[in-house]
Structure formats: structure tokens, C-alpha cells
Specification:
Layout (H helix, E strand, L loop, with lengths): L1 H16 L6 E5 L9 H16 L5 E5 L10 H6 L5 E5 L23 H14 L1 H8 L3 E7 L3 E6 L13 E4 L3 H8 L3 E4 L5 H7 L4 E4 L1 H6 L8 E9 L3 E6 H6 L2 H34 L5 E3 L5 H8 L2 H16 L5 H6 L4
Length: about 350
Amino acid sequence: MNSLRAAVAVAALALSVGASEAKTYRWITFKPQGAGDAQQRSTQWFVDEFAKRTGGKHTIEVFWGGSVAGTREIPTALASGVGDFGDIITPYFPDQFPLNNAVGFFIPQPNNTREIGELMEKWHAEIPQFEQELANSGIKAVGFRPLESYGILCTEPVESVADFKGRRIRSYGFAYPKLIEALGGSPVSIATSETYEALERGIVDCTPIGPALARGWKYDEVAKYYIEYPIGASFGHLLAMNLASYEGMDEETRAIVDQLGKDYLGVYADMLDDDESTVREAWESELGVTVIDPGVSTEDMATLSANEGIQEVRKDWIERATALGVDPDPIVAELEFK
């Protein structure tokens, strides 16, 4: 927190000069520079493209690895002007950003990474409350970074959905505990950083995750069975700006940022697809991970989603959206199995 306070003071001085004149913007992120995954590479792509499209007039300096603000500090740091750009792990802030966390209440859902990103773009363009929710915190969304489509990684084979019964499955957030209970499993709340050891020691038998993330966290070293259970993509990260920094840009630069945000989704999704393909190839060869398809249909997922516990979570979001003046029905329709 000391680094965050110091950065606030520096940012306040910079803003007093005038954000519209800034030529070097600051991007604060939790991602390590050497991560090498789609999230880190696409961040670097955005930064490089910004310099290129502004003809070098403006640049972005990235402060990697939480060096300025940790994951849970970034919204406050952006709002305070510590950073001009930053990536926010949206599910960490369901009460602050309930609308922008809509997907997190609708797990499982049928959309993939690109489709979730496109839905977020659509909702921001068509429903003013999505942007206003962020503006209330001094933030502007300039891009969207959904996570990959998830299955379930286990330490033992799961040949059918019935085999999830009695399994201890890693859980988090609002929707996953109810999904796990609907499958007959026992939800166990464990942090991402602690899941490797939990799988290794048998504290949990399975965890919902996608291939690229499973490899990134090395969970596939201790859990060798990936179940193609169609949970869908979760919404992950907002690419956000300090609202004053965004509004202080000249019209040309602001238009470049807007277009970069639109282009970003396709670039990121392509990188994520490449990562997943590489991981699946490694699973088949040197890593020895067995992929199991339990034969779950769209109809099966629709039936599961009708579970009372799952519906309770969805009703919670519907009530929040309604209270904010949003018609939830069109959004819900996009997130249901049909």
C-alpha cells in the first residue's frame, strides 16, 4: 500500500499539469511481464499498437506484476489517477460492478470467449447503465478480456456426469458452488494460488478451469484428467482507463483507443486459441493428460441450469439489474442454454 500512496501523490501532480497533454500514459497490471500467456502478450500488443497508431506521439509505460497496485487495488488506483490504463479482474468486485459481472452469475452458460466479449461490447453500447456503473467509480471500459471456455480438471477419471457425485470440487464466486452442488459434488472454496497443492494433496478432486489456465498454473502436473464439461467462458477482465484521462485525450487519440479496444478482442481471442491448441497438443504427448468427453448435450445443460440453487443465483443478479433500471430479460436470454 505504501507504493500505492506514493503513486497517488505522483499522479495528482501529473493530473494538475493536464491529462490532455500527457504523452506517456501509465498502465498498471497484476500480470508479470514474463508471463508469456495471452493476457500478457495481448497487453503488450495494445501498448505497441497505441504507439504505432499515434505515430509515436503518445506511448504507454507498463508497470507489471502489481508493482504499483495489486489486483484488488487497481480500481481504486485507476480512479485516483495512479494509472491511466489498467486491467481489472471484474469477478473480484461483484458488489461494486454487478452489471459488469453479469456473466459470473450465469455459470454455466453457452457462449465462448469471443461471444462473451462481443456481448460485453453490445451491452456497453446499448445499455447506458453498464458504462455508468464504471463511471461512478471514475473508470471507463476500453476493452474486454473474457476467460477461456472451461471444463473440469480432475485427479481421477470422470466418465459420466454421475461420476461427479461426491467429488470435492474447487469453488469460488457466486455461481460455482451451486453448479457443483447441482452436479452432486461438494464445493470447496480455495484460492487459485492454493489449488495446485489442494489437488496434489487430495484436498480437492477437481477444479473448473480451461486448458491454457490449467497449464499456466501447472495444475495439469497433478491432475491428469480433463473433462469436457461445457461450462462456457467466464468474463474475466476489463481493460479500463481513468475516466478523466480518457476524457482528457484529444479526439483523435480517443478514437484510436476506442478502435484499439474493439480490435483487442479478436487479437486476444486468437492468442488464447493458439495457447489452448499448444496445451492440448502437449497433453496428448509429453504431459499425458487424458481428455474425456462425457457426452453432455445442450438439453442436458438447460436441464441442469433449471436447478433451484442455480436459479437462485441468477435471480439475485436479475434483482440487482432491475434495481438499477436495466431490463434483464434480453441479457438473460443471451446467457441461457436453448
